[in-house]
Amino acid sequence: MPPLVVYGGPVSQPTRAVIWACLMHGLKHELRWTLPAWVTSGEWNTQSPGFLAINPWGTVPTIDDEGFILSESAAILCYLAGKHGWKDVYPADVQQRARVDQYLHWHHEHTRKLSPSLFFPVLRGNPKSPPDIETATKVLTQLEQYLGDKPFFCGDALSVADLLAYCEVGQLQPQFFGLWEFGPSYPNLSRWLAVMAKQPGHDEAHKGGVKFKPKFAEMKQKFEEACLVQL
Amino acid sequence: IFSLSCPFDLFTMVLIIYGTPVSQPVRAVMWACLMHRLPFELKLTLPRRTEAGLGARHPEYLKINPWGTVPSISDDGFVLYEAAAILCYLADKHRWTGVYPTDLLQRARIHQYLHWHHEHTRKLTLNLFGPVLMCSPQTRATTADLSETMAQLEQYLGDKPFFCGDALSVADLLAYCEVGQLQPQFFGLWEFGPSYPNLSRWLAVMAKQPGHDEAHKGGVKFKPKFAEMKQKFEEACLVQL
Lengths: 231, 241
Fold this sequence. Notes:
Chain A is of the alpha+beta class and 231 residues long. Chain A contains 10 helices and 4 strands; from the N terminus they run βαβαββαααααααα.
């Protein structure tokens, strides 16, 4: 049986969540590097004809599971969980599942804003599009509230919701891209981040991100300088 | 009428939907219930308003849904928000396997649409309907941007009968409540015509589905008020130029 093919890259937050779920459950997969067109003009980018033939929306992650093509990370996570019986991270109980689905949908207009607010501006390096600290603060405050004193976003057990959330929030920490100080203003998130970092598959899933760290630090430096010149 | 009159405590066991028929995702949830004859009580809850017993920004409602959005449901005490999550929950609980099949691949296709919806179809309300409602010309998207969203929808549907294949699903209910409202018989915000053969075909089929008319009654009632708002909005846009 050929392995699951995942199109994307370790620097794509939702791709990381899918890879992590696979690693956590020992599911063999092949990562085919596909990066957004605005990041690379190389052969395998999301606007290349080859990729658009697979996913006309040109988004990552996309999977090819023995010919079944699926995009949208939340849909992919739930599909893999359903197929491989990962009831630990996507429960069978109707109410518990609904709580996970609620987060997965809420994520789009909230948590997902973190990357365009803080991460993408550095990659784009355009001082006319500076980081959006206001949106990031608002979202992180909401996340602090959503999590509350629960161990995980949807209750007592880690779920696919946490994987998706961590890949947006976790990357901001100093040990990754250094884009946010969590500290005492975010006691719930700080607690949760520490717990998530110890989960199976975490380090492996973030290896590629860690490799990118020095390059990102350079870009961040240049970008901060350019923003200062702009002022 | 949506609510049941029942003098006994049983009343608390009826599904409560918080929202307004003017809200697209609320309509989708109501439609699913009407289609499957699941009784519910609609507790009128208006976004951005703060009055007790009415406003989604009132502390009582924020206890149910801290983000002040609609729809939310209370199902015998179980509270849930996000229309897509609500649709899937009700479908699973009541075994509406027609609109939310248990087949793994088919369900995945539906999930793919439900998630794609947020950053695509939902733009129609946020960038076209919302600006009129709030009379804010600066938040209306350009015709070019809206055409792009519409073209994507036309492409997503393709020549399939419904968004996720041969059968109507919760994806279609959610999509229709964004797209259908734009038609002349509702709020008159888009001309579908010959540029959108797939969407035009699908819109006509969706309008004949069980529960469609009942689900859209509240929206139809709002039509004259909306037409007034549209007039004011268009004047405001001209002033803007």
